[in-house]
Amino acid sequence: MENPSYGPIFRDVASTRRHVLIDLWHRQLAICNLMMALSKYLPVFLDEGWIEIQCIATRLEENIYTTAMDEQDYFEEISREIRSIVWKTYVENERHQERLAIHFWNPQPGHSISQFDQAVETTLEQGTIIHPQLLSITQIPNHEEESSGGTENYCGMDRISNLSNDLLHTILSLLPAKEVVCTGLLSHRWRGLWASVPCLTIDENQFGAEREQQFNQFVDSILLKRCAPLEKLCLFSTGTCHASFWINLALRNNVKVIEYCETGRNTSRPCLDETILHFASRYLKVLRLGYVEIPSDAFDALNSSCPSLEDLELIQCMLGTIEISSKSLVNLLLIGCAIRTSVLICCPKLVSFTIMNPMHRCPIFEKLQSIEEAAISLDDLVHDGADEVDLEVYYCNILDSLSHAKSLELLAPFGELTFEMEMMNIPMFNNLTSLILGEWSMPSSFYPLTCFLRHSPQLQSLTLKLGMDKCEYCCALEHNAMPGGGSFTSNQLKKVEIKCIKGHKLVEKLVKMLRQNAKSIEELSIEEIEPSG
After folding, report:
1. Which residues pair with 294 in a beta bridge?
2. Which of 193, 191, 139 is nearest to 164 (CA)?
3. Please, are residues 400 and 486 in contact by the beta-carbon 8 Å criterion?
4. Per the count of CB atoms within 10 A, which of 44, 217, 441, 500 is most buried?
5. Quick check: 264 and 290 in contact, CB under 8 A?
6. How many helices (H) and strands (E) would you count in the chain?
7. Is the pLDDT of residue 70 over 70?
8. 470: which residues sit within 8 A by CB, 6+ positions away?
9. What are the tens digits of pLDDT across the range 398-433?
C-alpha cells in the first residue's frame, strides 16, 4: 500500500539520502518553522506570497539536508538558519523584539525520536500537543493567561495562523491524520483544528511494528472527539471489526465520502461486521471498499437507506448480496470482485459502470435506461470453481440492458460464452458511437463483429483489442457454432484501431472485410506488439 501523497509544501523534500536518515515528518516540521520565521521577515501578500515563502523554505531545508553530515548536524544547521532569520527580523523591526517566537523541535541528547512520537500520540487524551521536556522552543503566549486586562494583542503571531479556518482545513486535509494532530506544535491557534478537519486519511502502516493498540486508540479518539461534520474518511487498516465501528462513527458524523481498504491481504477476505456497521445515511455520496467481504445486510442498507449514494467502487471484494439496486447510484466500479451467487444489477439512474475480471461468474443485468458508458472485461477467473455445465448460466442479459449506451467496451478471451450466448438476440444500439471489442469477437467468420456493426447505425469509432488469448474452459464445452458473419453497411464509421499481437493471422482478412463494407472509414491504424514470453 502506497503512503498517501503529501501536500505541495513537502513534495520537494520527499527524497532521502543514504548517510543522513531524517524521517519525513521532522523534515516537514523544519520547513514549517522556516516558513514561519520567513513570514516575519518577508512581507506576504495574498496566496502568491505564501507560495514564494514555501519555495524559499523548501530550498533552504534541502540545502541543509544535502550538506548535513549527520542527524545532529542537520538540526543544528536548521536552528542556526532560523536564528539568523529571527535576528534579521529583530534588527529591522526592533519594536517586535520580545514578541518574536520560533517553534522548532531540536532533539536533545537522551530524547529519542520514538519518545517524541509517543508523546505526540498521547495528544488527544492529554489535551496538549507535546510534552514540554521534549521541546526546545520559545513558547507562544497564551491569550487567556496574558495581562489581567486581556486586551493586548499578540503581534508576533505567525501569519499562517492568521489564515481563515477554511484555508487551514484545506491545508491540513492534505496530510495524514497522524501528522494533522502533530501540527498543533506550530501554534496555539492550530491545537484544536484536528477535531474539525473535514478530510481524514488514517493509515495503520504509519504506526510502526507494534502498532495495533496505538492505532486503535488514535482512531477512536480522533473520530469520537470530532466537533464538526466529516466530509471524507480514508481508512487503511487491518481488522474489519474495528473498521466497521469507525465507519459507523463516520456515518454518524454525516460523512460524504468513505474509502476503506483492508491492508492485511489475507487469502480470505475479512467480512465487515454487519452487527456493528449499518450503511444508513442521507449524506453518503461516495463509497469505495477494497479487499473485504460485504454481507447481504450491509448491501441491503446501501440499496435502500443511502438516498444520496452516487458512486460505488468495490475492489477485490466478496459480494454477499443478490442485487445492487440503489435508486440513486450513478457510477459503479467492480474490479476483481468474487461473485458466488447470481447478483442482479438494476439501478435506474446508472450512467456508467465498469466491471473488470469478476471471479466465479458475471453479474446479471436488468434494463438500464440511463446508461451511457459501460465496460466489461472478463478473463478465466470468471469460471474459477465452476462446476456447472448448463449454458443458461452464461446468459446475463448484458447486451439488451446496455442498448442505450453511447460507449461500450466488451473484452474477453476467444470462445468466451458470456458474450457469445447473447449474439443471437442482439438489440439495436441506436445511440452507440464508440465500440471496443476483444478477441471473443474474432472467430474466422467475424460474426459478433458484423452483428454489432449492423446493429449500430451511429457508430463512429471502432477499436479491436486482439491478444490471441483463449478461454480453455468455454472451448471445452459443447455448444452450437456461430453462423457466418455476412455483409453489413456502415455509413458513419470514421475511425478503426486494431491493436494486436504481431503476426495475428486474421488481421489481413479483417482489414479487407472492413474496407469492403464500411466505405466511410477515414482512418484505419494497426498497432502490433511483440508476444510476451
Report:
1. 319
2. 193
3. no
4. 441
5. no
6. 15, 19
7. yes
8. 413, 414, 415, 439
9. 999 999 999 999 998 876 778 888 888 899 999 999
Whole-angstrom distance, CA of residue 273 vs CA of residue 242? 9
Torsion angles phi and psi, residue 298, rounded to 5: -65, -40
Query: Is 499 strand, coil or helix?
Result: strand
Q: Report the alpha-carbon distance of residue 4 to residue 368 in Å, rounded.
A: 36
The pLDDT score that the predictor gives to residue 304 is: 93
Of 26, 29, 2, 24, nearest in space to 13 by CA: 24
Q: What does the alpha-carbon distance between residue 288 and residue 334 come to, in Å, rounded to a whole number?
A: 10
What is the average pLDDT value for the chain, to the nearest integer?
A: 76
In this prediction, residue 258 carries a pLDDT of 96
Cell of 359: 471471479
- E strands, 45-190, are none
Give percent of the chain above pLDDT 90: 28
For 436, the grid coordinates are 471496443
8 A C-beta contact, residue 184 and residue 191: yes
Percent of the chain with pLDDT strictly greater than 70: 71
- Residue 67: all three cell numbers together: 550538506
How many degrees, rounded to 5, is the angle at CA 180 between CA 179 and CA 186? 90
3-state secondary structure of 516: helix
> Residue 386: is its pLDDT beyond 60?
no
Beta strands 352-356; 338-339: pairing state: unpaired
Which range is most confident: 80-84, 101-105, 148-152? 80-84
Q: How far is CA 315 from the centre of its chain?
A: 11
Q: 233-237, 391-395, 503-507: which has the highest mean pLDDT?
A: 233-237
Interval 89-118: pLDDT, tens: 555 554 433 333 333 333 344 433 344 344
Cell digits for 275? Answer: 452487527
Residue type, 40: K
pLDDT attached to residue 131: 29
- Half-sphere exposure in the Cβ direction for 391 (13 Å, CA): 13
> How far apart, in whole angstroms, are the C-alpha atoms of residue 69 and residue 434?
59
Nearest to 498 by CA among 452, 467, 476, 459: 467
Contacts 24+ apart (CB under 8 A), 89-96: 89/37, 89/40, 89/41, 92/41, 96/40, 96/155, 96/156
- State how far the Cα of 54 lies from the Cα of 44, in Å rounded to an integer: 11
Q: How many alpha carbons lie under 13 Å from residue 175 in its C-beta half-sphere?
A: 21
Round to whole Å and give the CA distance between 411 and 406: 17
